[in-house]
Amino acid sequence: MICQSDGTQCPAENRQVSQVLGLGLAAGKGVRFRPLTLKARGYLRAKAAVRFLGRRVLDWVISILGQQGMHDFIMITSGKENRYQIKSIVGYGEALDVRIRYSSVRYDRRNVGSADAVITNMGYFGLDDTIFVFPTDSVLDIDLPAMLAAHQRHDAVVTIAAAFQPAEAIAGRYGLIQCEADGRVRGFVEKPSLAQITALCGTRAGAPLPTNAGFYLMNAAMLRALCRDPEVSAARQEQFDIGTDLLPWLVKKGYPVYAQQIGRMGDLGNIPSYLETMLDVLHGRFQSMNLLLRDQYPGGGGLLIEPESLAMSDPISGLTLAEKIAQDLVTIIPPVRIGKYVRIYPGVTLSECNIDDDGEIYEEATIRRSSVGAGSSVGPCSVIEDTLTGIMVDIDSTHGLPILLKRYVAIGDEVIIRPGVTLSGGVTIHPRLKVPRGITIPPHTEVETAEEMLEYL
């Protein structure tokens, strides 16, 4: 609950949350989110390492939880490379004013699912109090003190953070939680069809319904005791995840599992979801992130522009960005975030987008509902819509041969796109490739190698 005039938490509520330990599930590989999780062919970044509005996703999540009073974290990793990547983002928590520890290297190799990893680490660290288990590839809007109070009131083994969505959004995409009026969970339906939702929920089918957001409060002492059950021990020999195995087992056995509504959850698992979440954040729909954005990027009116970029001039007009905005020489339709040292030329149009640090946006370029990675160059007369690029991408458009990227195109790090190219309809280009002039790549094609690229010439 936000209860101070400056948006901070009430001290008593902070003290309650400060007793909760955060357990981050950081071992996931970003296969679904290629090419943004690819540094080079065969080298996958952790999903937690993906950049979102100028920061790594894991940095955002810990900052969101930290502002609500949580300051003690354990990161569950998998393997040396994954551990190195996570440590390179948050270290031991010094920069974020929190404490971060890491799962045992010895046990990481043995984990066979998220629930198995949580149970193993509860035992390894001797955890007996309340823990908050969270993914490191999603952002959320959560009233953690209220969720903790409900968890304690119900004496729950697990309380699920439930994101409420309309039936049409759930159908075929998310799992549905079936709850009693007081929030007690009585069952789960995995990715139901709209007809199934209507049959199950009747007249409520058109109303928002609870889905599992992947964040959980857990009673560690109760869970450790219950998981000594022979059925759980046997399941842990193969695959034992939280959502598909542990929670259904607890509900089936009659143990108290509850769902607590949260404000909003942002899925970053694929390109459309990433861009949708980015727009929600830029439009101020995530209260927890509003506070962090406001602190990091001074300004107002939905224009989150770093002062270093406002002071950057271009060689054509000789004017700074601040002067071009004042003289209507550029069009910026908020919300727009512009990072540090971005050079923007006259005639540029930016609408509902993010431009990371050190970019060059040349004259007459148009960028809508997109995110452009740090150090990227967007050539003259480019049109970029609903597109996501990695770092140091060269969109080599010209006045005579403009480049068009639209409808959920994903461009990996250090890609070069030659003049006149059009990509649309879910095309994905892997890192360090060159997209030649005259190419035609069909929609929903993922190009991984230079040899594959030549097939479309």
Tell me the layout of helices and strands.
Blueprint: H1 11-18, E1 21-25, E2 38-40, E3 43-44, E4 51-52, E5 55-56, H2 57-66, E6 72-76, H3 79-90, E7 99-102, H4 105-108, H5 114-124, E8 130-135, E9 138-141, H6 144-154, E10 158-165, H7 167-170, E11 176-179, E12 185-189, H8 194-201, E13 209-219, H9 220-226, H10 230-235, H11 242-252, E14 257-261, E15 264-267, H12 271-282, H13 287-296, E16 303-305, H14 307-310, H15 321-326, E17 331-338, E18 343-344, E19 349-355, E20 360-361, E21 366-368, E22 371-372, E23 377-378, E24 383-385, E25 387-389, E26 394-395, E27 404-406, E28 409-411, E29 416-417, E30 422-424, E31 428-429, E32 434-435, E33 446-447, H16 450-454
Parallel strand pairs: 1-6, 1-8, 6-7, 10-14, 16-17, 17-19, 18-20, 19-21, 19-22, 20-23, 21-24, 23-26, 24-27, 25-28, 26-29, 27-30, 28-31, 29-32, 31-33
Antiparallel strand pairs: 2-3, 4-5, 8-13, 9-15, 10-13, 11-12
